[in-house]
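ok so i was messing around last nite and threw this chain in just to see what happens. nothing serious, just curious
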Amino acid sequence: NKNFYKANLHTHSTYSDGKLTVEQIKEEYKKRGYSIVAITDHEHIIDNSRLDDEEFLTITSCEVAVKEIADVSTLKKFDMKVAHFNFYAQDQHNNLTPCYNSVYDHYVNDETKDLIHYDGEYERIYSVDEMNKMIKIANDSGFIVSYNHPTWSLENATQYLNYEGLFAVEIYNHSCTTTGTPTDESVFEDMLRAGKKIYCTCCDDAHNYHDFSSPRNDSFGGWVCINAEKLEYSEIMKALQNGEFYASTGPEILSLVQDGDKVKVKTSPCSKIFLLTDGRRKGAVLAENGETVCEAEFILNEQDRFFRIRVEDENGKNAYTQAYYV
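result:
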């Protein structure tokens, strides 16, 4: 009985290294059916709530990086590991950037210097323990934290399985995918099997260096649909924290119902609907040649521990539910 709101949780504007102003971002996303955009400019929080209206909401947020060598660019040292995190403010007007470090912030200009706020310098050290400290500081400062594009970052299970305090992991990053980096669904699966209660997102990471008509454009390729009572900041953040959303690069998931050991799902027309579990036991409903399917029913097993649904359309686009525990 709630509403679905389409949201991009990862975007860059001219406040950092994006090519569109925040006003242009609102215009382009809103006319394509988006209700929510998190403008996650690099390294500093800016409150963009002046853009909000009855049909559009901005999430106060930023993206922070921790590199093996702080003052060296990942665009010059291609084998350097790095961790990127998005901080999303639970209070829309909380614009004090946690763990600010000016070595990382190359984007302070006349447009941004009066808009950013921080409380001293924080030394960032590339280690699991130190990054867990940063995540905790962000959580304690009123932010929920997502883990971004782990494959692009060159991180592996020795790092990401030891991160604590994350609410979500990006399993699809449109900017990375347009340049050949694989999706990160396997990272999500690793985390779930390791016992982490974490959600998944699909995001753009848009910079808009290419025209909207170009196949290299990195907008409008990955999003989440948030299930909430109304388009209000507190309601949207509560839904994100509770995992009341699904992630998609194309298909819609219209409903998901668990009734005892039965799971029923309804979708937009697609070619495949999969039940995925903690173990080898899976389920699949596949369309016949030239046809589509719009619903599926699966039976759960007490050994499954958790289940989730993945939907694939005829163009190879996917939608993903969160993991639900049996």
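not much to say yet. The first helix runs from residue 22 to 30.
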